């Protein structure tokens, strides 16, 4: 099967794009408005894009509160989503009125950050504290703006629960993070394998 993604008919029940580009890490983004309102929301269009310096990005379909708040104050946090926190993460995706706390709605506690004002999810085993680099509205092949916004942030602080540090390394499988797949599906990390890179790579 091959088809044009510009609207050519196919026999699939749903667009498979998100199922093919999977699994995707979830950016559980916390931001604070200029008025002090706190927002917490999950984004599956999220990833690390640089290691020196550490830079992350997320993309929002429609201009949601997280994007607006980050533009206002220039800071955000990303908390790691684990299997134990999956249901509460899902609750924070609810379309609450602006200013209503997703933390309270999902029964989550906030923990203070060290380098930025937005809090992190207290129960998460790891979080990144970020300063805004840029917000960009995306365009299609015709150069037309689409209602999608990409946010880039530089990591200025890292929180790790010491219970998940093994031999000086973060125990990813022990933390049991989850990732977004297609449709209503998720994946969870329960074990890892290693492959040595070729010499000189």
TrEMBL record:
Segments forming domain Flavin reductase like: 19-172
Gene Ontology MF terms in the entry: oxidoreductase activity
InterPro entries per the UniProt record, alphabetical: Flavin_Rdtase-like_dom, Split_barrel_FMN-bd
Official protein name in the record: Flavin reductase family protein
Organism: Bosea rubneri
Entry EC no(s): 1.5.1.-
Lineage: superkingdom: Bacteria
Pfam family, one: Flavin_Reduct
């Amino acid at each position: 099967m091959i088809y044009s993604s510009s609207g050519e008919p196919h026999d699939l029940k749903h667009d498979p794009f998100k199922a093919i580009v999977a699994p995707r890490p979830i950016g559980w983004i916390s931001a604070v408005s200029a008025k002090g309102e706190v927002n917490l929301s999950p984004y599956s269009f999220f990833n690390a894009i640089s290691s020196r310096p550490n830079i992350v990005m997320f993309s929002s379909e429609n201009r949601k509160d997280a994007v607006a708040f980050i533009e206002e104050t220039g800071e955000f946090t990303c908390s790691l989503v684990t299997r134990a926190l999956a249901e509460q993460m899902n609750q924070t995706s609810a379309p609450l009125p602006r200013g209503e706390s997703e933390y309270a709605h999902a029964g989550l506690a906030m923990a203070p950050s060290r380098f930025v004002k937005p809090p992190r999810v207290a129960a998460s085993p790891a979080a990144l504290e970020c300063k805004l680099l840029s917000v960009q509205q995306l365009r299609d092949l015709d150069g037309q703006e689409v209602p999608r916004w990409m946010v880039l942030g530089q990591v200025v602080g890292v929180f790790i629960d010491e219970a998940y540090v093994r031999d000086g390394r973060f125990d990813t499988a022990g933390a049991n993070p989850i990732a977004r797949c297609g449709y209503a599906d998720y994946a969870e990390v329960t074990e890892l394998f290693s492959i040595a890179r070729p010499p000189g790579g």
